[in-house]
């Protein structure tokens, strides 16, 4: 995903320059159009007054000069954008490999067993990413049979994550309460952070949610010894509820990045309970193995003869007879 982000940043720069160029061009052309209209009015007036033709010639020359300068300026600025467009292509070439098959042996996937392992790895990755329908289609096309006991945890985790992304905490809270002891064994703070975020969502509802927030505060009792300071901050914020938390010293409680953080914490702790790595094995292979294989390929394709001053490709190397 980092590679996509790099290309996207270059693309955003190009789009920004195009938008800026469009606005500036419209402003300059509108100004030029106004000048031409004024010139036309002046020419009509000069014609009625039987003015000297030298004055008309000077006025027309000045107008033509402005038009020429405007066209040259717009062409020059448009030419500058070409450099930004080419940077997008360079970013794509730099971050993505057009051909990586050369780093893999041709017969590495010939074995049905290896094809099965590859399909299972891809299916697991799709389950992790929440692409359940795509994973099912791949299973049908490849003939891979995935046991329901393997799919069920991913289905549940994705359901909870989807709810968290819509700021619905109830499925995650139910899961955390059901797995409370196992989370405590991992020294996880997930359940407390979920209750804390739910309490903050009540604070965000204003004074009408004050009574409900006070009642919900009872959920903090099991965490009082470990998170006393955090609980004190939450309870102190109730004083400013009537005037708005966003206008109080506790406005940091309303920061939106907490939702992304709780998704990451849930993913980490849920994977730990299931005995899974947080990162997909397929992602790890792509991010670590492919660059290493490319370096290995480059090294293998270079030959250095102890008697020759330059490196050569194997296809260009010559056999020496002694």
TrEMBL record:
Q: Which GO terms describe its cellular component?
A: cytoplasm; GID complex; nucleus
Query: What domain of life does the native source organism fall in?
Result: Eukaryota
Q: Which residues form the CTLH domain?
A: 153-210
User: Which InterPro entries does the annotation name?
Assistant: CRA_dom, CTLH/CRA, CTLH_C, Fyv10_fam, LisH
Tell me which Gene Ontology terms the entry assigns under biological process: proteasome-mediated ubiquitin-dependent protein catabolic process
Give the molecular function GO annotations: ubiquitin-protein transferase activity
Task: List the protein's name.
Answer: Protein RMD5 homolog B-like
């Amino acid at each position: 995903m980092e590679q996509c982000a790099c290309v996207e940043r270059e693309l955003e720069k190009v789009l920004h320059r195009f938008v800026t160029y469009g606005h500036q061009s419209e402003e300059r052309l509108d100004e030029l159009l106004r000048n031409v209209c004024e010139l036309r009015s002046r020419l009509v007036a000069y014609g009625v007054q039987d003015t000297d033709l030298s004055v008309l010639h000077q006025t027309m020359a000045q107008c033509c000069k402005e038009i020429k300068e405007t066209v040259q300026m717009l062409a020059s600025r448009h030419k500058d954008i070409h450099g930004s467009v080419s940077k997008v292509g360079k970013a794509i070439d730099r971050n993505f490999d057009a051909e990586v098959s050369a780093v893999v042996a041709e017969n590495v996937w010939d074995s049905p067993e290896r094809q099965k392992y590859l399909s299972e790895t891809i299916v697991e990755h799709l389950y992790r990413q929440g692409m359940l329908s795509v994973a099912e289609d791949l299973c049908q096309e490849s003939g891979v049979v995935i046991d329901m006991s393997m799919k069920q945890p991913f289905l549940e985790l994705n359901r909870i994550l989807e709810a968290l992304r819509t700021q619905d905490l109830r499925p995650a809270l139910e899961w955390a309460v059901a797995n409370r002891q196992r989370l405590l064994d991992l020294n996880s703070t997930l359940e407390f952070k979920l209750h804390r975020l739910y309490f903050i969502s009540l604070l965000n509802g204003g004074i009408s949610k004050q009574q409900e927030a006070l009642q919900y505060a009872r959920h903090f009792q099991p965490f009082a010894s470990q998170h006393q300071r955090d609980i004190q901050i939450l309870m102190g914020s109730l004083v400013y509820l009537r005037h708005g938390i966003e206008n109080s010293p506790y406005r940091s409680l309303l920061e939106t990045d907490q939702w992304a953080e709780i998704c990451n914490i849930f993913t980490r702790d849920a994977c730990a309970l299931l005995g899974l790595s947080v990162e997909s094995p397929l992602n790890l292979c792509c991010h670590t193995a492919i660059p290493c294989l490319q370096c290995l390929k480059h090294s293998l394709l270079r030959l250095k003869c102890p008697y020759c001053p330059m490196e050569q490709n194997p296809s260009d190397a010559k056999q020496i007879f002694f």
